Amino acid sequence: MAAQLKIGIIGGGYAGMAAAVELACHGHRVTVLESAKQLGGRARGVEYNGVMLDNGQHILLGCYKNTLGMIEKTGGNIAEDFQRLPLQLTIHKHFELKAAHLPAPLHLLAGFMNAKGLSWKSRFAAARFMLAMRSIKFNIIKDIPAIELLHQYNQDEALIRFLWEPVCISALNTPLAKSSAQVLLNVLRDSLNGSRADSEMLLPKLDFTSLFPQRAARFIEQHGSQVLLSHTVEAIIPEVNKITLETSHREFSFDKVICAASPASAVRLLQPFPQLQETAAQIAAIDYQPIYTVYLQYPENVKLPQVMLGLDRSISQWVFDKGQLAGQKGLLAVVISAEGHHQELTQEQLADQVIRELKDQLGILTSALWHKVIAEKRATFACVPNMQRPSTIPPIPNLMLAGDFTEGDYPATLEGAVISGINCANAIQLAFQA
Ligand SMILES: Cc1cc2nc3c(=O)[nH]c(=O)nc-3n(C[C@H](O)[C@H](O)[C@H](O)COP(=O)(O)OP(=O)(O)OC[C@H]3O[C@@H](n4cnc5c(N)ncnc54)[C@H](O)[C@@H]3O)c2cc1C
Question: What is the CATH number of the domain that holds 228?
Fold first, then answer.
């Protein structure tokens, strides 16, 4: 297919690579400029001690149709790349919710009725809450903190502690008291309220750079486009009918540019333009939440009772068994999402604490052979009520904005990032065809 537009994309994370794939499919000539030595951004593979890790254990949901679609489009195979688990939330020795083998929404309602660790009163309260949210199509008139919404619908302490708090922290990476009720409802609408397949959890068997961005790079190269690593964009220079990007190496000139850099970088790049003051101010106002992942390599015989297990009243929130997941025997990934007292600990203290919790709660008495703490202090935006998120179409001709923080229904997720990239690509294609 003949090349049509020359398009520059700043950033090779999930948003930038999704935009690149979509545009390459339309025959445009795309150049992705990525400042790091590898693709993936906040969802990237990290090698440590000869073992492939991620910068944080990620999980996808069956309802992440755009991300899954992109993985397949670029040569992935969802059945082979992921371990697909029916919705199952287990807080070790305290709580278990399993979706039943029934059509939606009965799968979830039956799941509530059979949940272990809840009184009958709590089970009915959870079912009533979901039915009430269905009746209002998961839309509230005024956004409020998620905890207030749960209290309004009589969700008791056990339900909040074992179900809603873990769900909210995992999905929004923001404590319940600060989270947007509306965004939580958007996630519940598409996952728990969707089909059984939508509510399934997909745990990747390969690292997050290999899963999509690397495949996307090969895909776009086969379509006559290119990816340049270690190319930091230092300035955007809009000119008549073209737009120039100044990088650490040289200048590039394009018909259109999509800025798919992280929010902090996007602010720096957009701030010089008077027309973009409002957009830059919206991005600058974003507050962040951390995610810590503690990887622990135990001897190969150490195994969890199931692939993913929650822990109650501990710093460790979720433990993943990478042996059962990806054949990395004895490797556990412990995830600690959102802000908390754990941030006051040094990495050594945090690893010690996590090791103690695994010993006390799961009976893992053997010493870890090594550990690695990965602290992503700005892992995601804090998903607070009534957040003003910037539009993907800022008021400068030929420049668009992609990334998980741009306007949309979802919290900071791979799906939000991919959707924003696809939206930018579609808008460019639509204008091109007009
Ligand atoms: C530890 C952790 C766990 C997570 N868990 C989950 C999960 O389970 N499920 C889920 O859906 N989401 C999860 N997320 C969120 C998810 O990773 C992000 O929402 C998503 O990766 C964001 O993608 P993005 O493309 O918008 O931004 P980014 O990934 O930040 O990509 C931006 C890219 O731009 C590059 N860049 C920045 N500035 C420049 C510049 N000036 N020039 C060139 N390149 C530049 C960066 O290097 C980066 O590669 C998690 C995030 C973290 C950190």
Answer: 3.50.50.60
Residue 419: inside a domain? yes
- Average confidence (pLDDT) per 10 residues, the chain, 434 residues: 82 98 97 98 95 94 96 97 92 93 85 95 96 96 97 96 94 96 95 86 95 98 97 93 92 96 95 90 96 98 95 95 95 97 97 97 95 97 96 86 96 97 96 88
As for how many domains the chain has, the answer is 3
For the CA of 412, the nearest atom of ligand 1: 19
- pLDDT for position 271: 87
Which pTM does this prediction carry?
0.96
Instruction: Please calculate the CA angle 153-154-156 and round it to the nearest 5 degrees.
Output: 135
Distance CA 425, CA 258 (A): 9
Kindly state whether residue 403 falls inside one of the protein's structural domains.
yes
What domain range includes position 268? 6-44+61-77+206-286+386-433
Query: Closest Cα partner for 201 from 325, 114, 76?
Result: 325
CA of 399 to the centre of ligand 1 (A): 20
Q: What is the pLDDT of residue 102?
A: 84
CATH classification of the domain holding 348: 3.90.660.20
Q: Please tell me the predicted confidence (pLDDT) of residue 104.
A: 79
- Please give the number of the atom of ligand 1 that sits closest to the Cα of 261: 34
Residues forming beta bridges with residue 375, ordered by sequence position? 292
- What count of residues does the chain have? 434
User: Which residues form the pocket of ligand 1, taking CB atoms under 6 Å from any ligand atom?
Assistant: 10-16, 33-36, 41-43, 55-56, 58-59, 232-233, 260-262, 265, 291, 293, 376, 379-380, 403-404, 412-415, 417
For residue 65, what are the CA distances in angstroms to 42, 61, 240? 20, 9, 38
Atom number in ligand 1 closest to CA 415: 11
- Tell me, in angstroms, the distance from the centre of ligand 1 to residue 246's CA: 22
Phi, psi of 87 (to 5 degrees): -50, 120
